[in-house]
Amino acid sequence: MTTHSLLDRLSGVVGEAFAAEGMDASYGRVQRSDRPDLAPFQCNGALAAAKAQKQNPRALGEAVAKRLEADPLLAKVELAGPGFLNLTVTDEALGQAATKIAADPQSGAWARAEDAREKVIIDYGGPNVAKPLHVGHLRAAIIGEAMKRLFRLAGDDVLGDIHLGDWGLQMGQLITQLEIEQPDLPYFDEGNTGPYPSESPVTVDDLARLYPIASAASKEDEAYRAKAQAATTALQQGRPGYRALWQHFVDVSKAALERDYAELGVSFDLWKGEADVQDRIGPLTERLEKDGLVVESEGAKVIFVAEESDKKKLNPVMMVKSNGSVGYHSTDMATIEERVDEFGAERIIYVVDNRQSQHFEEVFRAAAKAGLIGLDRLEHTGFGTMNGTDGKPFKTREGGVLRLRDLIDMVVSEAEARIAEGEMGAEFSDEERAEIARKVGVAALKFGDLSNPRTSDYIFDPKRFVTFEGKTGPYLLYAVVRIRSVLARADSDGGTADIVVTEQAERDLVLELAAYSEAVEGAYQKRMPHLLCDHAFSLAQAFSRFYAACRIGDEADVEKRASRLRLVRAAADQLTNALTILGLPIPDRM
């Protein structure tokens, strides 16, 4: 629902005309025109209604069109083809719609009906403790943050959870490798139950060095792997020294993660990890055993989720492994239980890449069978990969995985070069130019990702992303700054003036402003932030055409000047709101 949608108003009016002809009002649904050169809106309902009632669609269309001719909302109603209705809205109605949008703090955004709003948890981080963020973490962070902001705009009560990977085999590997290098640390003395040092024996750089060594050794040396697995099990079963050491790993990793995510404008309401639900796994498993859902299989305790109708093989969900340890299946199950019990989650959305789809299908089925939450309340909002210009997953020149910090530095450096080439902000201080370059670089990176359909792979090309022309983040930042500058030069934003539409460029701009409602609703319902990117770009282009065609600050007619300045403010506010939802940082000037 929305109070500003032209489509809703049009659909209501046309629906009434269909109802007056004895048809269901739903046939009056209006949409944006496939042929905007003929009319901004169209209704195709006459074809479906006539087929259902075995009538002539053109005759029905003519009857509906005749009923609409006198409606004050419509300037023109034309019948085309076998019964299509082409609809043009009056300038007065456009002005009224624009005035309402200008007065709305949310710029006419769609919102859910209050009784439909939900408590939602969005899981969109997923980094592992002890590992630096790399390019593989980029899309989850950017898409997840945009989804969180979009859901809040729609009225849902939303929590974003990073869901740290802090409880698996990598913890045992780190403990094992650190003991090899520093065996005298008090954490490795089984007789020492604490207290332990408050200062961590390792930094995040130490962890970044230790993990590759431990991981490689675990793959190559069976004895090393067995020791790491034993350390993992001991940690999960509560060995005090290992728990204290694990807490150090988490603390130093979290501090580094917060810094890197902050660079992207990404934040989390919850910093929960797999370890947080360790104490839930046992009781949950026992309860499900009593219910007959968890059964023993080859020494492990599992939930069988496969159905005869499945066209692919689904693995059983493993609550406890044969060696007594737990893994992703069990921690994900316990996390669902925690999110429902402690936070009242009515919907849980996982922003994780497409390659994990089977894992989530297995866990979701098990959670539904266990009665934790309805299957339709669990969503895997998957995404494709970010690839290099060779079409393969993005790597460093040496073929390694690029750190996220280095990727951010890459686009910021490219932004600095573009700003210098264009002599932009030559009069600004070095500090301000550096800050602008940072915002431009981050906006380029985020918009370059979000402007692609979430489910698709895309090519990462910093030179193309960091350009001030075309459909890019920098272009949109510049558009916002430019629009604001019009208001600054005029020293007015139109106040509370009614917006009056008389010129084609004004009509086009108002129609784009009115389309924001559908863009927000579409992005929300389809979980596709790129629809909001499309709208932001179209709005910026419409403003550019309006700016070229109409006098604004120097308009001699006082009322027309105020109207246009308020229209400028509406465009500035809506574009700012859209970019804020997408997480693009906007500089004050450029």
TrEMBL record:
Catalysed reaction equations from the record: tRNA(Arg) + L-arginine + ATP = L-arginyl-tRNA(Arg) + AMP + diphosphate
Example of a GO cellular component annotation carried by this entry: cytoplasm
Domain named Arginyl tRNA synthetase N-terminal: residues: 4-89
One Pfam family it belongs to: DALR_1
UniProt KW keywords: Aminoacyl-tRNA synthetase, ATP-binding, Cytoplasm, Ligase, Nucleotide-binding, Protein biosynthesis
SUPFAM superfamilies xref list: Anticodon-binding domain of a subclass of class I aminoacyl-tRNA synthetases (SSF47323), Arginyl-tRNA synthetase (ArgRS), N-terminal 'additional' domain (SSF55190), Nucleotidylyl transferase (SSF52374)
Ranges spanned by the short sequence motif 'HIGH' region, renumbered to the chain: 127-137
DALR anticodon binding domain location: 476-590
Enzyme Commission designation: 6.1.1.19
Subunit-level organization: Monomer.
Name of this chain's protein: Arginine--tRNA ligase
